[in-house]
Amino acid sequence: MTNAKKRVLIVGGGLAGLACGVRLQEAGAQPLILEASDDVGGRVRTDLVDGFRLDRGFQVYLDAYPEAGKFLDLPRLDLRPFKPGALVYLDGRLHRVMDVFRDPRYLFASALAPVGSLADKLRVAALKWRISRSTLANIAVHEDLTTEVCLRRAGFSRRMIDVFFRSFYGGIFLERDLRTSSRMFEFTFKMFSQGSATLPAQGMQEIPRQLTSRLPADAIRRGARVTEVRPGKITLSSGECLEGEAVVVAADATTAARFIPGLATKEPEWRAVTGLYFAAEKSPLREAIIALNGTGRGLVNNVCVLSDVAPPYAPPDQALISISVLGVPAIPDIETQVLAELEPWFGPAVRNWRHLRTDRIERALPEQPPIAGSPGPCFREIDGIFVCGDHLTSTSIEGAVASGLRTADALLG
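^ thats the sequence. predicted structure below, dont judge the formating
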């Protein structure tokens, strides 16, 4: 059967499903994406609230992603970069720690920052040099450890790991234990070294919107809840049955495992995060940078003023502040506690911040522990049904897009 006649049913309109659908469409096939919610994007969504653009959880796009970078029209996203570094709250003040190879103005400030020894900072340079010389293919087959073990083997002191790496990578991995795969750590470290963390000027949902614009309107059905998946056939909650030459499950790990019992040997595990948004008349940071909690105490992991990075995130003369708390603590007045915790950081002005929204996201990122041996394929075929998503590769935008593209390539032959 030619691609022009090949109808492919795709369960899930997240980035993996959209990437798969776009690749199939542009090759002449006929994808139909079935999305249970009111819009596509999966975990990458943005809402407009009182003129502020609120992403569902603090997220960034790393502009060095190779697969996603080639597939997306990055200039059209109007990416706005963060500065290459961070401010670390410790001992009652914010200390600057920058990538001095990319911004040498802060060489002395970074060298003197009490987040670790001078030897630790030289080890960062050595790690950067080593990983820059490794290809992504080589990183994918390195011995897989926990990130903490990897850092200890690299010689970093306990203080450097506890003060800097736990908070910085806590914001990326959504866990401070550094139990995430060291391959994932090396991959993200390489991406940060080669490029910038960025925000699309109009919000993270511009990424799935761009992909949607490359599909015909009838290629996506929103509010279409799938109840059963079989080879070549899908049943919706309405009772409607759809048939196609192939079926792709591009849903999250838990949903995919429910549809395909042979996919996982145990219940998929997730990392959770609580994202809080506040509006202020002035930015407490006044620059495009992330601020980290280096104390190891309290609720807050990281703070960012999104409108400092991308001004369209907020109305004129307003600042949009994003705060991440790892997990979903059962604290009814979490907004009050977070503001009290941040007053020593930024002074009494925090009392005037206006709460916009709190997002409690139970399924923010799939767990990605170390694995023995070589990584598996970034998609699977089980009993005639294809499965793709970031849970089968790296838990990132790059992983989701790459998984969707490889699945489409397999279907196209």
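The chain has a mean pLDDT of 95.
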